[in-house]
């Protein structure tokens, strides 16, 4: 035991206890492993292969370290073993016969059950670590092995596996560059960093078993998918099983990803794949759920995160140039009443209104159109009676719609990219900081809906009343337009949906 520091001697004392514990046990019953039962065999334990030296163990661990760390947890692993003489696993729990304190075995239990997270069980070297632990505990060294080598391997592999396990369960197993095709707009995500990995080591140091439990994803959706995975795996191997199992594996991984924008207590998730929106209020433990229409396969709704800050009543629609070229011009050439029927006006570059019949639209079908088209507000406007705006580079929004028929369809990928809301009025009320009867009635009146409060009923006949045209929210509401082909409905049931965009 030469060369052990006081601290290292204390950390490794459990291994020495094993030697004497095994010798004591030999007096009571015939040993089941090559434990010395005579002076001559006891002398074998003084062979250099059995001698424990903390400095030697540290040196062996450092040889294993990656000098060019790829991940934040690699960096923390490298820094810890280069700078400190602290072991996490080489203590009395390594050889204890009390299950409650067998920390290494607890870690192996969690690693060995990684498949419950939909992750390949071969990701971690559980069997090889368990075999090395057995050699340590039985003092049965395989040829070419030394106790120092085994202890170094166990310490390094368990710590490396722990950090990888905790960090990837928290932020996802797929590297960021493999999560989405470059052509797909996607929501910014949090990434594991050195600070988090260092905190994970602190948790391991303070209470290992609590750290293992804390690493488990806790969302209701995740737990439902774990239960469903067990059920699906019990079906046997069929095409149907593969369909549901693959859906679950993909969505469990996505459920581990964390939005860079914090949700807070009140947030909105528009699930493009499911054609559903959920407005969640954690303070009241309530969910407003509604059908939505999203972009067609040709005009996909972009995935994004933002903050809703503003609602506009009875908006005008400034028609995008792409729609003028691709849809309005071809339709007008077949039906010259198009502009009149849809209450659309045409303006030149100076903002002067021009007669659409005086324009030779055919010459602009494939190139830039030197005119703007605006649809009148209120009845029949494509944006409906209310629109909810949020910063984004795609010029997409959530809005009402006069086309109520679309909400009866199963496939509601029918828009040009914006998200149409089935319950726009209810959504407006959800966004308010707190219930406000008078403000809610002002919104109703602007949308040609009868007010319900006594004070609200007096508003339209008041000489001082001015119709509400827009309202800025007192608090921004986080919005996430995401893509989940397995999701949890408001009634707490797991739902599957089709991969409409083939993501």
Strand order of the largest sheet: 1-2-3-12-10-9-4-13
Determine the N-to-C terminus distance: 59 Å
Largest pleated sheet: 8 strands, mixed, barrel
Strand tally is 15
Question: What would you call the structural class?
Answer: alpha+beta
Rounded to an integer in angstroms, the radius of gyration calculated over CA atoms is: 33 Å
Strand content: 5-15%
Percent in helix: 25-40%
Mean pLDDT: 88
Number of helix segments?
Answer: 17
Assembly of the depicted chains: single chain
Low-confidence stretches: 1-36
| Shape summary | elongated
List its traits:
single chain; disordered N terminus; eight-stranded mixed barrel; elongated; 15 strands; alpha+beta
């Amino acid at each position: 035991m030469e060369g052990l520091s006081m601290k290292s001697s204390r950390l490794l004392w459990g291994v020495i206890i094993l030697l004497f514990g095994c010798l004591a046990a030999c007096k009571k019953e015939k040993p089941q492993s090559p434990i010395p039962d005579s002076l001559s065999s006891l002398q074998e334990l003084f062979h250099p292969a059995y001698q424990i030296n903390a400095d030697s163990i540290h040196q062996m661990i450092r040889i294993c370290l990656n000098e060019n760390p790829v991940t934040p947890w690699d960096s923390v692993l490298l820094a810890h073993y280069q700078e400190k003489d602290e072991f996490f696993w080489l203590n009395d729990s390594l050889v204890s016969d009390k299950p409650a304190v067998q920390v290494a075995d607890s870690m192996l239990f969690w690693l060995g059950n990684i498949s419950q997270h939909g992750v390949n069980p071969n990701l971690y070297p559980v069997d090889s670590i368990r075999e090395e632990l057995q050699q340590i505990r039985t003092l049965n060294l395989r040829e070419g092995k030394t106790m120092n080598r085994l202890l170094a391997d166990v310490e390094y592999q368990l710590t490396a596996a722990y950090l990888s396990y905790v960090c990837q369960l928290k932020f996802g197993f797929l590297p960021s560059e493999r999560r989405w095709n470059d052509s797909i707009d996607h929501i910014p995500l949090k990434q594991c960093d050195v600070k988090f990995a260092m905190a994970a080591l602190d948790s391991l140091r303070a209470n290992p078993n609590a750290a293992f439990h804390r690493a488990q994803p806790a969302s209701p959706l995740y737990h439902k998918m774990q239960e469903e995975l067990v059920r699906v795996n019990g079906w046997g191997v069929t095409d149907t099983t593969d369909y549901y199992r693959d859906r679950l594996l993909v969505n469990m991984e996505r459920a581990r990803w964390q939005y860079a924008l914090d949700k807070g207590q009140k947030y909105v998730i528009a699930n493009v794949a499911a054609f559903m929106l959920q407005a969640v209020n954690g303070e009241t433990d309530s969910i407003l759920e509604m059908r939505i229409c999203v972009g067609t396969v040709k005009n996909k709704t972009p995935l994004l995160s933002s903050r809703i800050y503003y609602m506009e009543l009875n908006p005008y629609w400034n028609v995008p140039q792409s729609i003028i070229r691709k849809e309005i011009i071809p339709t007008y050439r077949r039906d010259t009443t198009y502009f009149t029927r849809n209450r659309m006006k045409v303006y030149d570059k100076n903002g002067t209104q021009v007669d659409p019949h005086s324009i030779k639209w055919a010459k602009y079908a494939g190139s830039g159109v030197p005119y703007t088209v605006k649809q009148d507000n209120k009845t029949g406007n494509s944006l409906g009676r209310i629109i909810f705006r949020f910063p984004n580079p795609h010029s997409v929004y959530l809005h009402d719609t006069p086309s109520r028929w679309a909400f009866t369809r199963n496939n509601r990928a029918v828009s040009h990219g914006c998200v149409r809301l089935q319950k726009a009025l209810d959504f407006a009320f959800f966004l308010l900081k707190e219930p406000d009867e008078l403000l809610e009635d002002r919104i109703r009146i602007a949308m040609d809906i009868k007010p319900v409060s006594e004070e609200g009923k007096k508003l339209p006949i008041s000489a001082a009343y001015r119709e509400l045209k827009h309202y800025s929210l007192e608090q921004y509401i986080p919005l996430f337009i995401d893509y989940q082909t397995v999701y949890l409905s408001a009634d707490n049931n797991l739902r599957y949906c089709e991969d409409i965009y083939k993501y």
